[in-house]
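Lay summary. Proteins are chains of building blocks that fold into shapes, and those shapes determine what they do. In this project we predict the shape from the chain. Here is one chain we studied, written as its sequence of building blocks.
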Amino acid sequence: MKLLVIGSGGREHALAWKLVQSPRVEKVFVAPGNAGTANEHGLENITISGIPALIDFAQSQKIAFTVVGPELPLAEGLVDAFLGAGLKIFGPTRKAAQLEISKSFAKDFMYRHNIPTAAYATFTDAQAAHQYIDQQGAPIVIKAAGLAAGKGVIVAPTLEMAHDAIDQILISKHFGEAGVEIIIEEFLQGTEVSFIVMCDGQHVLPLATSQDHKRLLDGDTGPNTGGMGAYSPTPFISPGLHAQILREVIYPAIHGMADEGTPYTGFLYAGLMITKDNHVSVLEFNCRMGDPETQPILMRLKSDLSTLIEQALDGTLDQAETDWDRRVALGIVMAAGGYPENPRKGDIITGLSDLMTRQDSVDDFHIFHSGTALTNNNQQEFVTAGGRVLCVTALGDNLKLAQQHAYDIAKRIRFDNSCMRHDIGYHGIDFIYKS
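And here is the predicted shape, written in a compact code that computers can read:
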């Protein structure tokens, strides 16, 4: 069968790479894909854009099902249009995707269904927001309520920074339409983890746990980004805590969506804060797999992803089982200079082609592309074409060894002004070795 993946980032590269491993899958088309998917066996990029053209393509190619990677096509109603055309597609409808499209909807939904989350207030008026900040004090969190590519969250340790954040979003329109409304939220302390599941509208299949690293610089400093690295599994989620998350967060969300007439089908990502006393609080819902969490999670998945998605589309996820590599996977994002505000483009990447050739003969690392392109005169010469350029993902018998393996590979790749953190996985390593 032939499949279609929508998107151009590292998450979509990983999804397509895993799907094509199935002996039942002949080819995976990626729209639009990147230079990595262009060089991956069994994958083919297509430059089609626009919902009508994608529907025509899926129909003409007899695509068995489509998988939506990023959030923007969900917000544009891609799933609704495909379903209306009688096509199978894995992802939530636009109405169900409000859990990510609108942070104010998500917060109200969580309160309606007793899902634990931080106290909050919403504002469209800057003066009222400033007054609220003065009443609440700092530290405090300010979020653009709309889609901001993972960058619309500002953790303000001081009142001055909080007031600046309000002006930046509501007055200077730093996040455009995503910042027409803001959420001001209680600051929570603890450990952030990612909990991603597959949903079929009624049943849930948990994927491997993971932990993301949002800040640009080592030690969790610098601005928030779309994610600078991740690893799986995380030691912070014990079996007991895993059951608690399902009980307090995931099942209430899925049942709540169904009760409100918007059954949820697709990947659901819960960004969670775990306190020292194992209290769980939802920081955000995403209606897709995370990036870069997808890369290490799928490196560990031994089951046939295409079969799991088919079971989700058939409403039989309660019968699905997953098999995971016992090893730890860790992914390091290599970003362009100037990321996240003004990433450079067009810098030649060296060392990548040789590693991509080698990865085909081993199973312990893979380099997933995000912001890459091929030069016109050489189909093996890669250049930077976006903020997050690559995610170097490697396996190891434990977290420390996975970290060492990934950094050994990443150090062989070079491009001007590249930026990467040097401590991905350090939370988990500290936890393991101090326990």
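What the prediction tells us: The mean pLDDT is 94.
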